[in-house]
């Protein structure tokens, strides 16, 4: 239901043609823009073209508005701080509004689609008053894909437009494809904060009421009230994971929360590896890893999302639908992730909720071993390492991190020096191995291999991880996070797991080997047992040796682990004791997991695949 009020004419802000190539704009797109404009009442409409000049115009305007600070330390780069309440994904405000509640399943919030639309329509009514309505045509994945995956985001946030430009292929190229009549996803976003006449806009407009809503049957997204990346850059989590997972179920492929990397051995054998870790559990770092073992090379294809489809040879081919990196800033430094640091140094980046140095650059915890002597923290407050001001008084920021734990860099992936040439290949790369991982202080060993595909799906389906600052809510709580997709499965979780099992059943399928990894096991003092980062190459090497049948393994009740001395440890700084504990499979700890896994499978209801219950029975038996 929209009002019958006159609709602003959908031409560019400065009289630009909406379709710079000259093709007529798809009637359905014009109709939708008109409908949204009539409801939300923007002052003007801007068709986003995606040019450098347009990016310059938008960022200049954001600087003038006080939202962006132009960095002097990096070219064409900006610092922005959000409202302190709008710093992460809001899982409790995220909904899958399928026609039937059963199709959203027990792991998603659900509301009847018509009821949700009625409620949100009232929220959207007049919500763009005083603002520009930006029309952002976009394409997830290369424009020259056989089936380009298109969308249009309507947003009233220039921050979103500039971030979408980094993260996806936006503008004229995508619009031209849409105008040829190809299908596209409608993605509506508003920060939900009209600018009333006579008032000035907030630096970070948002609304206390937030909704991140998906209509999977209609392939549509409605987002309201937040400007944060995961809630507002609708090509990313909303389209490429939640909506795409529903598309993938219908069409026989996978949309997954996975990095993709290319691994080349000293003898020039190439393997492509995908890995699913929950948010803030190491995907971006592993994707850009600089191996510490001589002769091994890692190149980057993706750091967050993988779309995987079977090739004619029965192998699973992965592409990265994104165009940028939206990386966790804290912990990213020259010693942990030098390739991310190089990508950032090239500029063209937006930094959200990091600290600002006195000389106009950014800083966050873990960037350098020692913090600068003086900073402006992410909340705009004076910050010093000691927590004391020059006059000896205690600062309000004392004892708090200078950057928000979920602060982010948003950087073009093409600036990553390790980007693999295959990134640009629309058919993707054949995946040899899938790693499932998470943050577990205890129980889960550094690495183990699943016995077969079904066992691998069981490992992925039952993996648990400690919650992080990437989503609002408590941090450090262990929860089951199947395939690192708990917040992103766009349909019923049992059906999703069945889909994973079914994929292997078609004739001629050559499924990847499956592994579980845990970089985050701790010793009694709370320190990490494994040094991680570049040293994780040693685990990747073992994975390759398993693929090639050259590394023996010990069969344990939970899977196959390296034999003593099986990991290449030449030059690594771990004591034999630490290594033993990092790799240990403790039967008692695993027996304590059994009822938790049982409870998790039970919580999924009647659609949980029987094969996974069989796997649990098998595990229980093997543990004795
Ligand atoms: P993503 O959100 O899954 O992409 O995770 P990131 O790669 O951005 O990493 C999230 C956080 O985990 C950062 O603070 C990293 O420094 C940290 N991290 C990543 N890999 C490792 C590792 O191997 N060991 C340890 N101890 N921390 C890691
Ligand atoms: P991440 O991406 O997985 O790199 O943290 C953002 C998110 O999942 O919210
Ligand atoms: Mn993610
Ligand atoms: Mn990441």
Automatic annotation (TrEMBL):
InterPro entries per UniProt: PEP_carboxykin_GTP_CS, PEP_carboxykinase_C, PEP_carboxykinase_GTP, PEP_carboxykinase_GTP_C, PEP_carboxykinase_GTP_N, PEP_carboxykinase_N
MF term (GO), any: GTP binding
Gene3D superfamilies found in the cross-reference section: 3.90.228.20, Phosphoenolpyruvate Carboxykinase, domain 1, Phosphoenolpyruvate Carboxykinase, domain 2
Domain Phosphoenolpyruvate carboxykinase C-terminal P-loop residues, every copy: 253-622
Binding of Mn(2+), residues: 237, 257, 304
GO annotation terms (biological process): cellular response to glucose stimulus; gluconeogenesis; glycerol biosynthetic process from pyruvate; oxaloacetate metabolic process; propionate catabolic process; response to lipid; response to starvation
Protein name, entry field: Phosphoenolpyruvate carboxykinase [GTP]
Lineage: Bacteria, Bacillati, Actinomycetota, Actinomycetes, Nakamurellales
């Amino acid at each position: 239901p929209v009002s019958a009020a006159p609709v602003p004419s959908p031409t560019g802000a400065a009289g630009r043609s909406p379709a710079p190539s000259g093709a007529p704009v798809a009637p359905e797109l014009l109709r939708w823009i008109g409908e949204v404009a009539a409801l939300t009442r923007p002052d003007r409409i801007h068709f986003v073209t995606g040019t450098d000049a347009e990016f310059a115009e938008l960022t200049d305007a954001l600087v003038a508005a006080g939202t962006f600070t132009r960095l002097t330390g990096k070219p064409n780069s900006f610092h922005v701080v959000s409202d302190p309440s709008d710093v992460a994904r809001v899982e409790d405000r995220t909904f899958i509004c399928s026609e039937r509640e059963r199709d959203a399943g027990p792991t998603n919030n659900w509301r009847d689609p018509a009821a949700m639309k009625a409620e949100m329509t009232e929220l959207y009514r007049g919500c763009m008053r005083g603002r520009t309505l930006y029309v952002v045509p976009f394409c997830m994945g290369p424009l020259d894909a056989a089936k380009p995956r298109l969308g249009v985001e309507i947003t009233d946030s220039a921050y979103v437009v500039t971030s979408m430009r980094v993260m996806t292929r936006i503008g004229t190229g995508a619009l031209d494809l849409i105008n040829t009549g190809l299908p596209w996803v409608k993605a509506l976003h508003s920060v939900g904060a009209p600018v009333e006449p006579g008032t000035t806009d907030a630096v970070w407009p948002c609304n206390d009421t937030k909704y991140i809503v998906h209509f999977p049957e209609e392939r549509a997204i409605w987002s309201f009230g937040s400007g944060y990346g995961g809630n507002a850059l609708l090509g990313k989590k909303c389209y490429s994971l939640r909506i795409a997972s529903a598309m993938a179920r219908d069409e026989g492929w996978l949309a997954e929360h996975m990095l993709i990397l290319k691994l080349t051995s000293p003898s020039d054998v190439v393997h492509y590896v995908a890995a699913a870790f929950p948010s803030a559990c190491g995907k971006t770092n592993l994707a850009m890893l600089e191996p510490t073992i001589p002769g091994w090379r890692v190149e980057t294809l993706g750091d967050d999302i993988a779309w995987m489809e079977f090739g004619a040879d029965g192998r699973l081919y992965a592409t990265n639908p994104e165009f940028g990196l939206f990386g966790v800033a804290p912990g990213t430094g020259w010693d942990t992730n030098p390739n991310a640091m190089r990508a950032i140094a090239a500029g063209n980046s937006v930094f959200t909720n990091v600290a600002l140095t006195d000389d106009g650059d950014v800083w966050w915890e873990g960037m350098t071993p020692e913090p600068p002597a003086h900073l402006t923290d992410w909340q705009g407050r004076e910050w010093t390492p000691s927590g004391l001001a020059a006059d000896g008084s205690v600062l309000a920021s004392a004892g708090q991190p200078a950057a928000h734990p979920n602060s982010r860099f948003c950087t073009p992936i093409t600036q990553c020096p390790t980007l693999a040439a295959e990134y640009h290949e629309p058919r993707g790369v054949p995946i040899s191995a899938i790693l499932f991982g998470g943050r577990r202080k205890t129980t889960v060993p550094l690495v183990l291999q699943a016995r077969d595909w079904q066992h691998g799906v069981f490992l992925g389906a039952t993996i648990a991880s400690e919650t992080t600052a990437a989503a609002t809510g408590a941090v450090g709580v262990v929860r089951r996070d199947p395939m690192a997709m708990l917040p992103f499965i766009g349909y019923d979780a049992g059906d999703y797991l069945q889909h994973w099992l079914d994929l292997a059943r078609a004739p001629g399928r050559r499924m990847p080997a499956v592994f579980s990894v845990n970089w985050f096991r701790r010793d009694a003092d709370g320190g990490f047992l494994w040094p991680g980062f570049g040293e994780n190459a040693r685990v990747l090497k073992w994975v390759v040796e398993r693929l090639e049948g050259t590394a023996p393994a010990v069969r344990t009740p939970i899977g196959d682990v390296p034999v003593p001395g099986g990991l290449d440890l030449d030059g690594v700084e771990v004591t034999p004791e630490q290594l033993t504990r990092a790799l240990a499979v403790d039967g008692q700890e695993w027996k304590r997991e059994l009822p938790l896994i049982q409870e998790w499978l039970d919580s999924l209801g009647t659609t949980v695949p029987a094969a996974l219950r069989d796997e649990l029975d098998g595990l229980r038996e093997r543990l004795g």
